[in-house]
């Protein structure tokens, strides 16, 4: 039954009339339908509630909203089948959600809310309150039109809906509406019923595909760096005493908090062993010596690997496996690498990185998976229980389950911790469409549309499925040996203390703003908090706005997820960095930016990059709930314009592919952000197998 609240897949442009009572929506809906020779979907609630009034002389009650939603979507899906390219909707479920929250103490039925946010439309026409109030049996709040208009507008902004505001007389409204709808029609993609079935099977909306193709057409501009974030201007640095106070603040509160550790672990280790695969392909010990090979190729990676082979955590295992097969030292090196990588050997080159032996202890070797459990027991545990979530590739599900069965009981006993471990795979709905050089969908030989994995930015969907007061995020390969565990754990607790402290204050202000009893002085205080403590920059015209508009902006900026990002001093490692950037509308914000997003042909931009002092080790502590304990929809805070377009070939044809905004880059662009300096010991990534030879990985 629930699925009847969803939309049926049809190649239509869907327009929604959106706004308070008596603002001309129905009149305009009929005019637009006539203009485009198409169908318009009336407001089912009017029929339903008029019948209720006639029978009971009662207006709408909370119990009526879900039946109204079912009736509305049944009507929409029925009329969509006979619509001509455009479907005009006099309302949608998001409007029902707004009324539910505005009229019934801020609540909304979970099923109604789910589909109000899931169903998608190409354009919302927000009708202003400059039309005369016309009373009838059902309209009952003529004095609250201004408040309701603000609420409608806030909802469209909050959920990042594409909308325009319509003011003036009928002719002016119709003219502006048709101008915008005509643009949508010009960019409409030709999708066959088979194409729509394919989209539906992957859970990808037609509107999402249209937005991605528009991105291909427009291109993705470079970001505009304003300046590097440095200590004192964008990056916080705390003294030892301040760090201890923050750790204590977290410890004092953690008993009442839901904690979760989120570990992106989808990557295979093939790139980690790239140099050693090349070594296998290029070196033949029967034809030349190892020193001759090194001299011929200058292969320093292979030289380092062979010289320190006995320091790898898997050395003894491999030596035992090749025992009796080795004729000399050069052959030993070759057979060692072969046994490590090939399919009928250990097959490490195709292992998930999280399940490789990383550290060697007296008790045996340990994988990153095991090391993450040890960490979680120190800082992500409440009442003896630690929750972890790993994003893994589907083909590795069984391997992770097997590793958990082996090591979780051992670490549980060692740390006196009960582990609740869950997993997820990257969703097919996060794949992105590929296009030809003409920006039309690229078709495979069988006629299907080519979709490609969207990159690690797709994991924002997996993160969005998690719910906790505090979520710790750390990459699978960034683990430490036991002697450094306490220092790393204290750094994480310190970041959690920063989050808990600033979030407590933000929650207090957000709650106050919801009372609508905020003095000018208190509003100024909230603005200072946002700017000073949360690095929020107000719109340039903020001071020119009226009080209600200012309060609306304060409310919007406060009610966002918060991320505290650890930053380490830049010592030449690759990775994104912290910068102040300015968007196309002149809004300034604090962001993590990759070098590929920067125009290196611009000397000014290049100079800002070179002046950066820190980089991002992917060490995040996140708050994803509002003050009422409700989880934010994290997909509403993604900047789709921070993705990447790359050139590829498929079946001998050139195409363009789209990589989604990175999880901690554009994927979190509209979060409130704080950067905090953390010690270098917290950053120990293993990008190549030789990174395991660094002191930080030698137990």
UniProtKB/TrEMBL annotation:
<protein>
    <submittedName>
        <fullName>DUF4301 family protein</fullName>
    </submittedName>
</protein>
<feature type="domain" description="NadR/Ttd14 AAA">
    <location>
        <begin position="14"/>
        <end position="173"/>
    </location>
</feature>
<dbReference type="InterPro" id="IPR038727">
    <property type="entry name" value="NadR/Ttd14_AAA_dom"/>
</dbReference>
<dbReference type="InterPro" id="IPR025393">
    <property type="entry name" value="DUF4301"/>
</dbReference>
<dbReference type="InterPro" id="IPR052735">
    <property type="entry name" value="NAD_biosynth-regulator"/>
</dbReference>
<feature type="domain" description="DUF4301">
    <location>
        <begin position="194"/>
        <end position="698"/>
    </location>
</feature>
<dbReference type="InterPro" id="IPR027417">
    <property type="entry name" value="P-loop_NTPase"/>
</dbReference>
<dbReference type="Pfam" id="PF14134">
    <property type="entry name" value="DUF4301"/>
</dbReference>
<dbReference type="InterPro" id="IPR029044">
    <property type="entry name" value="Nucleotide-diphossugar_trans"/>
</dbReference>
<dbReference type="Pfam" id="PF13521">
    <property type="entry name" value="AAA_28"/>
</dbReference>
